[in-house]
Amino acid sequence: MELLCEGLRVEKGRLKELSFSEAPMMVGNYYPYCPEPDLTMGVKSHTDPGALTILLPNHIGRLQVKHGLEWLDVEHVPGALVVNIGDILQILSNDEYKSVQHRVLASSSVEPRVSVGVFFHPSERKLVWTLAGADIAGQACSLSTVHIYRL
Ligand SMILES: O=C(O)CCC(=O)C(=O)O
Ligand SMILES: [Fe+2]
Question: ipTM of this predicted complex?
Fold first, then answer.
């Protein structure tokens, strides 16, 4: 979080309200062999709703991110973690950080694709306050508070 603050050129404690000390959610994804991968998706295009997601995928690949109009493959680097900015961090950073659109293609690999994701999300009903009055990359931050509710 401190590095993200550095990227925004604000004091390093400004995003600590995101409550990363509280238990994040961990999800295991299993993508079995698909005989007709062109007819379906592993996970359809979406952005993650929370603040940050940390992913550890196995070597099968198939994760893509949207860049402009193009879908780009996320290269598998053994042992590397994939870190996604989520919607809340985009909002709280005054759009400086972009919540990345991503998807997982179905795979005809006999070996299954497996990934583990840890989702960091501020707790429900918590008033998240952040960068009110801060100057983010030369732009005054207009947003002051965000309320988090589960629908
Ligand atoms: O399995 C993956 O690599 C990504 C899964 C994903 O995007 C998600 O669970 O939100
Ligand atoms: Fe996702």
Answer: 0.98
